[in-house]
Write a structure and sequence with these properties.
The chain is mainly alpha-helical and 87 residues long. It has helices at 6-17, 33-49, 52-68, 74-85. The longest helix is centred in the middle third of the chain and has 17 residues, at 33-49.
Length: 87
Amino acid sequence: MIFSDPYVQEIISQILNKTPSPSLNIPIQKNMVGQIQEQRRVLEDIKSKNLLPYILKLSALENEIKSMNHSKYEEEIEKIFEQSKQR
């Protein structure tokens, strides 16, 4: 997944599943605080612009491309990127 912060992953899961979940009690290492804060800021921006579906599509395509080692999906990625810019 794009975001390594368990808190952010849980929020994304809640958005996709449209269900609340119990409060998380996940320990965070001090050296990860800056990265996690940035991920949370990015997530709030994503939520406010409703970009999560586009990001998930791009992430899935990126993973598929990496596993296949070719750029068969460049056109699809460009289309999704253009759609997300219109938001």
